[in-house]
Amino acid sequence: MIRAWVTPILLALAGALVAGSRLAGGSAVTGFALLALFLLLAALNSPLVFPRSTGAAEALRRNGADGRPVVYWRPGCTYCMRLRARLGGRARQAYWVNIWRDPEGAAAVRAVNDGDETVPTVLLAGRHHTNPDPAWLRARLDELS
């Protein structure tokens, strides 16, 4: 859990330092703008942006019951953030597995990506898709609805 918050905390601290130096230099507008930018990046990198993660075993069980996709992801991954952002509200239709919190999920990702923990990896209809186009996954979610 702590590992998931490292990037957002570092971004927030860096933003505070950069903004503080700008404020001390007399540039209040630039300082506050930079602080806002760093805080936005911290929020986007936080676990709060993603739907609640489930364990790999539970996600696979649910996937077998209703066919909804399983998305393996990790905090701080820009491709995962892009996928999540482009899916919008449809992201809640998938089962999200944080591979940093679930060793089974990490093992599943390594098994299909030649030993690499490449995310996002999506399991849909029995096939794994590594870093799929968000529009493609959005269309698959629309078909399932």
List the helices and strands and how they pair.
Layout: H1 2-24, H2 28-44, H3 56-66, E1 70-73, H4 78-87, E2 95-98, H5 103-112, E3 121-124, E4 127-130, H6 134-144
Parallel strand pairs: 1-2
Antiparallel strand pairs: 1-3, 3-4
Helix pairs in contact: 1-2, 4-6
Would you write up a description of this structure?
α1 runs antiparallel to α2 and α4 (78-87) packs across α6. This protein starts with a helix and ends with a helix. It is an alpha+beta fold and 145 residues long. The chain has helices spanning 2-24, 28-44, 56-66, 78-87, 103-112, 134-144, and strands at residues 70-73, 95-98, 121-124, 127-130. The mean pLDDT is 91. Strands 2-1-3-4 form a 4-stranded mixed sheet. The protein folds into 2 domains: 2-48; 51-144, Glutaredoxin (3-Layer(aba) Sandwich), CATH 3.40.30.10.
